[in-house]
Specification:
Layout lengths: L1 H10 L3 H24 L12 H5 L2 H9 L2 H12 L2 E5 L2 E4 L2 H9 L5 E2 L20 H11 L5 H6 L2 H18 L3 E3 H18 L16 H4 L9 H9 L8 H14 L3 H26 L9 H7 L4 H32 L1 H13 L5 H5 L2 H13 L9 E2 L5 E3 L2 E3 L4 E3 L2 H5 L21 H5 L14 H17 L7 E2 L6 E2 L5 E2 L5 E3 L3
Helix pairs in contact: 4-5, 9-10, 10-16, 12-14, 14-15, 14-16, 15-16, 16-19, 16-22
Length: 507
């Protein structure tokens, strides 16, 4: 009876009171959180930043989704200074001194949880793995393949891909228009896959030679089959500040709002190729080849990594290798076309150089300057590289950052710093003739510290070689860029709008 009486009395309470009672704890919690984040008691109370950013991550997530995060954060630094609180528990820095503590000292801080959004097929890649021990175990197995000595001794795939690239460039030049980004991606994916996997992807091959199934090729556009997948993959990097479940939801919605019809076909091609690579690697192990002769996937399989995870590592190589070298090389081509004075000086050096061996290319001073300036200008990864302050905490310029704080620097801020680079948005290779220590330390093209790109040496070797031969054969003579600048959507990885970096010639 007592319970019935209570139910009767409860039913007589107006609904608005029940709603208020239900919402009250959430309102109290929200108001308490806002008050704390704005109060002098918060550890970042003295760090400048917009009021809304101190309260919520929404402004940062919004600009990340819009694809202008780097420019947005840059404007915050212009207004608030070198250290800015860009979100409740996130602080961004523009000073070279901050790089040491965040990325270099004692191995640098751990990668933040955001990197988990770049896992592939449910597996953490060497890039996305936030577990140091797990990453180290896998990286150790394959690192020998990325040493300069190993790359030079097995350089034939790079030379073969370069030869096909130069021929295709000349052929397309005859039409009066070349998409430098697409060709660079094709060359890169062919070279990297043949060197690391032992099976060339075939992006710059004729259909009869491609090795992909006729049924798939029949429905694929006559361009590099991985381009749609790469663009689709990097476009979602604008969403990477979201939690994993929200990231997946936003990715799904993004696919509906901005459909990419070629992505499914290209994904099928990449998956088919990855399956062939794993099958070949398993055959290598069955043949008991010498460890030093094993390919990238065979080394992982031999170390006990499952075929499924190994497959995801191979797909990561396809994405990362194609995107990084492709964007960097396309940027150099774009800049050489935009600045004919630079091209003329580089041609003079290259055409007059006495090259007896490959190593001689690496020491050409102006070529080095052009490549380095190209890497500075290339916005392959323009936005922040977030790290999480470890349990010991971190003190920087008398401010203590507690464990769990997200701290970061970005290539955009470092590479375009007016304090370090005069006329930062202009392509001036000569600036590296008088480079300061801070200028060299600020370069973040391949990341920094122990977690930087493991293919840095390989990429630099290839970049020098390709640019040298492009200029030596005078292929870019008379080229003009279609646009004033390379238009991108900014995210962890930049997505070139429309997927084109076009050069034209007046026939």
């Amino acid at each position: 009876m007592a319970i019935q009486q209570l139910l009767v009395e409860a039913s007589q309470v107006p609904v608005r009171y029940w709603v208020a009672a239900f919402l009250a704890p959430f309102l109290v919690y929200t108001l308490g959180t806002i008050t704390y984040r704005l109060s002098p008691l918060h550890p970042f109370a003295k760090i400048p930043g917009p009021v809304l950013n101190r309260i919520t991550y929404i402004p940062l997530v919004w600009h990340s989704y819009k694809g202008d995060e780097a420019q947005y954060v840059h404007k915050l630094h212009q207004r608030y200074g070198n250290t800015v609180r860009i979100a409740p528990s996130s602080v961004d820095f523009t000073e070279v001194a901050a790089l040491k503590g965040i990325y270099l000292e004692k191995g640098g801080f751990y990668k933040s949880r955001y990197y988990n959004n770049f896992d592939i097929d449910g597996h953490a890649s060497i890039f996305s793995n936030t577990d140091l021990a797990s990453r180290a175990a896998r990286a150790k197995v394959v690192l020998p393949l990325f040493s300069i000595t190993s790359v030079k001794s097995g350089y034939k795939p790079f030379k073969d891909s370069l030869r096909r690239y130069l021929k295709r460039f000349k052929d397309e030049k005859e039409t009066g228009r070349v998409n430098a980004l697409d060709l660079a991606r094709g060359m890169s994916i062919d070279a990297v896959t043949e060197y690391l996997f032992g099976i060339r992807y075939g992006a710059l091959k004729d259909e009869e030679e491609s090795g992909t199934s006729a049924s798939i090729k029949a429905t694929c556009e006559p361009k590099m089959s991985a381009s749609d997948v790469v663009d689709n993959f990097i476009s979602t990097s604008r969403l990477w500040y979201l939690s994993v479940w929200l990231y997946n939801l936003a990715d799904w919605l993004d696919g509906i709002i901005y459909p990419n019809p070629g992505a499914d076909v290209s994904t099928e091609i990449v998956n088919e190729y990855a399956d062939r690579v794993i099958a070949a690697a398993q055959e290598e192990i069955a043949q008991q080849k010498d460890k030093s002769q094993l390919t990238f996937p065979a080394r992982l399989l031999r170390a006990g990594i499952s075929p499924e995870e190994t497959r995801s590592h191979c797909k990561d190589i396809i994405f990362a290798g194609t995107d990084t070298i492709g964007m960097n090389l396309a940027t150099v081509c774009f800049m050489l076309a935009k600045y004919p004075r630079v091209y003329d000086r580089l041609y003079e050096e290259v055409s007059g150089a006495d090259i007896e061996k490959e190593e001689d290319i690496q020491v050409l001073p102006y070529l080095n300057a052009v490549v380095k300036e190209g890497l500075r200008m290339s916005m392959t990864n323009p936005c922040r590289l977030p790290r999480e302050v470890p349990e010991r905490g971190w003190t920087y310029k008398e401010t203590y950052y507690p464990p769990g704080t997200i701290v970061s620097c970005s290539a955009y801020e470092m590479h375009f710093s007016a304090e370090m680079f005069e006329k930062p948005f202009q392509f001036i290779p000569e600036r590296w003739d008088f480079a300061t220590d801070d200028m060299n330390k600020s370069m973040m093209s391949f990341g920094l510290g122990n977690r930087q790109c493991i293919a840095r040496g390989m990429s630099m070797l290839d970049m020098h070689d390709v640019v040298y031969h492009l200029v030596k054969e005078d292929i870019l003579r008379g080229a003009k860029p279609v646009r004033e600048r390379i238009e991108i959507l900014e995210g962890f990885s930049a997505k070139v709008i429309e997927g084109h970096v076009d050069l034209v010639w007046d026939n």
